[in-house]
Amino acid sequence: MIELYESQRAMRNMRKAAMQRGVVAILDVGSSKIACLVLRFDGTEVHGDADGVGSLAGQSGFRVIGAATTRSRGVRFGEISAMQETERAIRTAVQAAQKMANIRVDHVIACFSGAEPRSYGLTGKVDVHGNHVGEQDIARVLSSCDVPDFGHDREVLHAQPVNFALDHRSGLSDPRGQIGQTLSTDMHMLTVDAMAIQNIAHCVKRCDLELAGIASSAYASGISALVEDEQELGAACIDFGGGATGVSIFMKKHMISADTVKMGGDHVTGDISMGLQVPMATAERIKTFYGGVVATGMDDREMIEIGGDTGDWEHDRRTVSRAELIGIMRPRVEEILEEVRARLDAAGFEYLPSQQIVLTGGASQIPGLDGLASKILGQQVRLGRPMRVHGLPQAATGPGFASAVGLCLFAAHPQDEWWDFEIPVDRLPAKSLQRAVKWFRENW
């Protein structure tokens, strides 16, 4: 996948080794904050639930023993722009989390937004050997998927089978052991800009840590903020971050599409900073305490003291009405939501049987956002918080930690890993074998 490892399989072996030691760190590299959670695995890891592939099945196998956040530096639009700054911020977060956990961590699993994700739908079809489906048949059907030419400067981040069909029966989550002649699969593949992944891998290495896994924060937010029914019936998770807004669509407990909008809460803060001519830190404080997107009659009379330390007494004593502040914030929030709407339309979201939309991420806490989103995106909108995991501190239970908590669930039970079988060399024709081995080496 990246030059540090020959394949994702090597990375997954590191993850397993780290879990056998019992401790692994979670690193959410965001544009506004870098969060680190230290997980302890108690050995009761569950691989899958009763129906085969449950994304949340490993939840009971770990608890959070350390947590820390620090202000992000050197990250723009979800991608690293200044390596040394980001390295310093990651070291700060990891050391604080290690101190709280009172244990040293060697392996981290990271997630990031941005990097221009693109989703592909792949299909594969093979004849079943024997009269029932075995693991080798699944390995063959996964490797028979025609991988599009997605460009040499991009890497595959996730490759997950979302549906299996046996003869005329579709919608199977785990066809192993079933009787049939022809097995086909639908797979979702997510590719991202290769440089973004290489930068994160290099940055983690510079921090004297080993990268044991990597995921998209849009995917991680979805598995923590969507409840099980929403993942099953179909829902979109909109992760409002600081520098980027992640969009992921789930169906049948699998992510079927992911995208990102290169705008987030920091852009709203920037608008306030320019509109009121105040520093970014002051603009962030005003946004947090007084911000909103829906003005009422009272807001003309509610005055906000801007404050400041420029030394110009008149300038520092200014006040603005809350209605003016909302007038600055609302156009940018509307612009972000319109972009999200365009991404959902492009992915065919309106054709899903259920069109639930869940807003999460730090910037989703702007008052009135859910009402505005329901006007622009559709009626069924709710605010989502990450599900509770064992040992998570109260400070880390807000929407801003959705991707970090989702990454904990991903670490305990990555869906990609469920279908990791060795390819049967002797049973494949030469051309198919070469393609399959190359594909598995590069992408799994």
Provide the fold topology.
Elements: H1 8-21, E1 23-29, E2 33-41, E3 62-71, E4 75-76, E5 79-80, H2 83-101, E6 107-112, E7 118-127, H3 135-143, E8 154-166, E9 169-172, E10 182-193, H4 194-206, E11 210-216, H5 217-225, H6 228-233, E12 235-240, E13 245-251, E14 254-261, H7 265-276, H8 280-290, E15 303-305, H9 313-316, E16 319-321, H10 322-346, E17 356-360, H11 369-377, E18 381-383, H12 402-412, H13 415-418, H14 430-443
Parallel strand pairs: 1-6, 6-11, 12-17, 17-18
Antiparallel strand pairs: 1-2, 2-3, 4-5, 7-10, 8-9, 8-10, 12-13, 13-14, 15-16
Helix pairs in contact: 2-4, 5-12, 7-8, 7-10, 10-11
3D architecture notes:
The chain has helices at residues 8-21, 83-101, 135-143, 194-206, 217-225, 228-233, 265-276, 280-290, 313-316, 322-346, 369-377, 402-412, 415-418, 430-443; strands at 23-29, 33-41, 62-71, 75-76, 79-80, 107-112, 118-127, 154-166, 169-172, 182-193, 210-216, 235-240, 245-251, 254-261, 303-305, 319-321, 356-360, 381-383. It is globular. The protein has a five-stranded mixed sheet with strand order 3-2-1-6-11, with helices on both faces. A five-stranded mixed sheet has the order 14-13-12-17-18, with helices on both faces. By secondary structure, the protein is of the alpha+beta class. The longest helix has 25 residues, at 322-346.
What descriptors fit this protein?
single chain; about 450 residues; alpha+beta; Nucleotidyltransferase, domain 5; 14 helices; 18 strands; Cell division protein FtsA; SHS2_FtsA; cell membrane
